[in-house]
Amino acid sequence: MRTYSKERKEAVLKKLFPPINLSFKNLSDEEGIPVSTLYTWHTKYKSGGGLVRKSDKGSKNWSAQERFSIIVETSKLSELELGEYCREKGIYPEQIKSWKDAFISNELSKANVSKQDKAETQSDKKRIIALEKELRRKEKALAETAALLVLRKKLQAFYEEGSEDD
Q1: Domain spans of the chain?
Q2: Is the pTM of this model over 0.85?
């Protein structure tokens, strides 16, 4: 059984990931390493045991502000300049594209939510106005009913007094 250095394993495994993205079979043919060995290395890499990329700062480790500044910085770069910039920062162009797409979709969803909020607010205002109008009508009817009851009691009291006098 042949043993490989950690650096060699890392160099080979990097070819499985972007931007190269070789299949296990193609990588095995290219490097002369059995597919089963590549799968073992890949499994160890994914589980975090042994093989870990040195300075690959994943998209989850970048703050939103850092990602936004990278998007702005790279927006005007050519493909070659972008590649150089990405190598310098230790990221992939695909990451920048996915960050940009995420920011755009997030802003669009915020705009849609804002439009929905405005529509809901407007419909709520109309409903409040209608409810207040109905409340005023009912308060007037209640006041009228209360006034009629008071007048009825006064009228009954007046007639009761008048019948005692006769």
Answers
A1: 1-54
A2: no
